[in-house]
Amino acid sequence: MNWIPYSQFKDVKEMTKGGYGIIHKATWLSNNETVILERFENSINGSNHFLNELKSYQRCFDESLRAHIIKIYGFTRDPESEDYILVIKYASEGLTKEL
Fold this sequence. Notes:
The protein has 99 residues and is an alpha+beta fold. It has helices at 49-60, 95-98, and strands spanning 2-3, 9-17, 21-28, 33-40, 72-77, 84-89. It has a six-stranded mixed sheet with strand order 1-5-6-4-3-2.
């Protein structure tokens, strides 16, 4: 899991809101790649949703499951809200094509 500076993302556009945060689509400059940014609202104030997501990902990350899980490249932090954000591979064909 790598730290990625928020300045590495451009064209950040909101896609949808969920129970714990907001999903954005963005361009990752250093990789010239479209990614998903999953922002966990109020994570700066002790919300456990971000940490729970990381723990869930870690538990599923073994050799037998690796090909079936969308890759998480790392995490960053929104400079304005200070919320934590997961940086996730963009499934351009939708999730069913990735699974």
